[in-house]
Design brief:
Structural class: alpha/beta
Number of strands: 30
Radius of gyration: 24 Å
Bound molecules: 5'-O-[(S)-ethoxy(hydroxy)phosphoryl]adenosine
Distance between the termini: 35 Å
Oligomer: single chain
Strand order of the largest sheet: 11-10-7-5-6-12-13-21
Number of helices: 20
Length: 627
């Protein structure tokens, strides 16, 4: 496909327009990253930029002292005191604006309250909240006092929340009474209470009054957020944290049954999201960034909070569902707040195409569009470029992961000719490759494992409480110097990278990582279920959906029971689109042969080894009946 060159107007004003950035980063890798680090505020400079002596544990900015909250708030007070840091809109259209000075006060007050409740440096603070300003304030308040935040996506079930709190050892939880989702009131406090029945390690719960719904407040344990902070002073000393102190833990799904707690550093992480917000999202002082991700996912952490706020930009935070009251809500928000940089996921891009007359919205403020989370098909790329951006906005397809902290592969919008459907090339200072299973570089168009060969500051510190999994999942296939991403990809003849999808038992639903093994484990816990297999099947809107094959006597009751169990144990996000009851699953060496099922369902092909063919045929027949 033909390359598309960045629009001239855009290039003229871009943050980065000198192509030498690539060669400079190659020749002097340390200088490249350090130059970004020097734009942030450090209490004490680092002694060494990079330490790989304990590979595969890599450390950056060794012994540097820095505070993330200081860099996202205090640093801007002199020049941006009255500038909007966060513009918030609730699902019902309510609106709040917090200036940098407001943010400073709110973060300071809450951090003092947390201190008074006994939270100390290194303690874990849970945040179980939807997209509310208080969620951002909570993250920054924890960071201010050197505590590690553990954000739990509000859509997760109490069981999932309990698992995350227990695994990370959360001591204090910040949550909300309720919130709105597609017009319905969700009683979040009730979910939190249920989680706290299961995990008893939380001493104090701070409750934001968002919806005003009736809730139980447990004497001695639960505190009203507003009452708690009212008495506190805004001034709050920043803890001097080390560059390699954990800023947060965030859970993500892997190819094992249990979610893993990915630990991110303070210094390296901040430098990485700061730098990428500047070079890829091209953020400038006058921008309004709308990142549509939920704060509970890494994209929300990096590009609704730490990246843009460390740069002193303005962030639009939206609480509700993107399709409420109708599918055009996102365009309404862009128009209403004059959004200039729009960062979203392909699922929403596909949904938005149902909005009808885009031209009834004034989207002329937009100057850059970005995408992340799953492959952005060429046709969707072109729709964004032509219909939404009117050929004035570069569309940057950015590849990265929870583990990488920030963007790794993406065009630099003013420099890189864009190929719709490709994530283009790694950013300066980062080296990736595509390997065949034997560790040899793949030829053009040969599908292989996407790997990372040169570390970068945003890379995770490790997995909380599970060093074995860290080594086994990422560093055992190609050794301690080559990071296995878990994605399949290929090069084209120009060395552009095309991502094909996950190579492991993880799928992307609406840009969210879901573990198939985790779903299978939960379903197998039901007495009636003898065996089961979950596979990902293409879905027009969500990208991928789940089809579940269950060995059990068919009954409507059981299908409902399975759905209820998945919803309770994981969350609605993991609900299957299709449940098929079968007599048997194809197996090889005792393991379910999922590829054979997938071939039968997706490609309508009967594959697998001889002994399985009949079993697979039966499954295929069932599917036809179900279709
Ligand atoms: C997928 C989200 C294609 C990929 C930031 C990766 C993508 C997983 C892209 C990480 C992209 C992310 N094109 N696929 N531009 N970006 N992915 O941890 O499979 O929730 O491994 O982080 O999303 O998902 P995670």
């Amino acid at each position: 496909m033909k390359s598309i060159y960045p629009p001239e107007d855009f290039v003229e004003k871009a943050n980065v327009k000198d192509p030498a950035i690539y060669s400079k980063a190659k020749e002097n890798w340390i200088d490249y990253w350090e130059s970004f680090a020097k734009e942030l505020h450090w209490f004490e400079p680092w002694e060494k930029f990079f330490d790989d002596s304990k590979a595969p544990y890599y450390r950056f900015f060794v012994n540097g002292k820095i505070n993330a909250s200081y860099n996202c708030v205090d640093r801007h007070l002199k020049e941006k005191r009255n500038k909007a840091a966060i513009i918030w809109e609730g699902e019902k259209g309510e609106n709040r604006v917090l200036t940098y000075f407001d943010l400073y006060r709110e973060v300071g007050k809450l951090s003092n309250a947390l201190r008074n409740l006994g939270v100390k440096k290194g303690d874990k603070v849970g945040i179980y909240m939807p997209n509310l300003p208080e969620a951002v304030i909570s993250m920054l308040a924890a960071a201010r006092i050197g505590a590690t935040h553990v954000f739990i996506f509000a859509g997760f079930s109490p069981k999932s929340a309990a698992f995350r709190m227990k695994d990370s050892g959360v001591k204090l939880l910040i949550t909300a009474d309720g919130y709105y989702r597609r017009g319905n009131l969700i009683n979040l406090k009730e979910k939190a209470d249920e989680a706290l029945e299961e995990y008893k390690g939380v001493e104090n719960v701070v409750v934001v009054r968002r919806a005003g719904n009736e809730i139980d407040m447990k004497e001695g344990r639960d505190h009203d957020y507003a009452e708690l902070v009212r008495k506190e002073k805004a001034k709050s000393e920043c803890e001097i944290t080390d560059a390699n102190d954990p800023l947060f833990i965030i859970y993500t799904s892997g190819s094992v049954a249990e979610p893993k707690g990915i630990i991110h550093s303070t210094g390296g992480y901040l430098v990485h999201v700061y730098a990428t917000s500047k070079i890829v999202l091209d953020l400038k002082d006058e921008d309004v960034l709308f990142c549509t991700a939920d704060l509970g996912w890494i994209t929300g952490h990096s590009y609704s909070v730490y990246g843009p706020l460390s740069l002193g930009a303005t962030v639009l935070l939206y609480e509700g569902a993107p399709d409420y009251p109708d599918i055009c809500r996102t365009f309404e928000l862009i128009e209403k707040y004059g959004v200039t940089v729009f960062y979203t996921v392909p699922t929403l891009v596909r949904m938005l195409q149902g909005c009808g007359n885009i031209d009834s919205f004034d989207l002329s403020t937009l100057r850059l569009i970005g995408s992340v989370g799953e492959p952005l098909e060429a046709e969707n790329w072109l729709w964004l470029y032509e219909e939404v951006g009117k050929k004035k906005c570069p569309v940057v397809d950015t590849w990265w992961q929870t583990e990488t902290g920030g963007i790794v592969i993406a065009p630099i919008p003013a420099l890189t000719p864009m190929k719709p459907g490709s994530v283009s090339k790694p950013l300066p200072g980062i080296e990736v490759d595509i390997y065949d299973s034997g560790g040899k570089k793949a030829k053009p168009y040969q599908l292989g494992h996407l790997v990372i060969k040169k570390m970068f500051p945003g890379f995770m510190l490790g997995i909380h409480g599970d060093p074995k999994a860290y080594v086994q999942l990422y560093w055992s296939k190609f050794g301690k110097r080559v990071y296995l991403t878990g994605d399949y990809a290929y090069y084209d003849e120009d060395g552009y990278i095309w991502i094909s999808g996950r190579a492991d038992d993880v799928i992307n639903i609406s840009g969210h990582r879901v573990s198939l093994v985790e779903i299978e484990k939960v379903v197998k816990e039901l007495r009636e279920v003898a065996d089961c297999a979950a596979i990902g099947v293409p879905d027009r809107i969500k990208g991928t959906a789940i089809a579940l094959f269950v060995v059990a006597e068919k009954s409507d009751d059981l299908a409902e029971k399975i759905k209820k169990k998945i919803e309770e144990d994981i969350g609605r996000i993991a609900l299957p689109r299709l449940i098929v009851f079968v007599k048997e699953l194809p197996k090889t060496a005792g393991k379910v042969f999922k590829r054979a099922i997938a071939d039968a369902v997706i490609k309508k092909e009967i594959s697998g080894i001889a002994s399985n063919v009949e079993v697979v045929k039966k499954i295929a027949e069932k599917i036809d009946k179900n279709a």
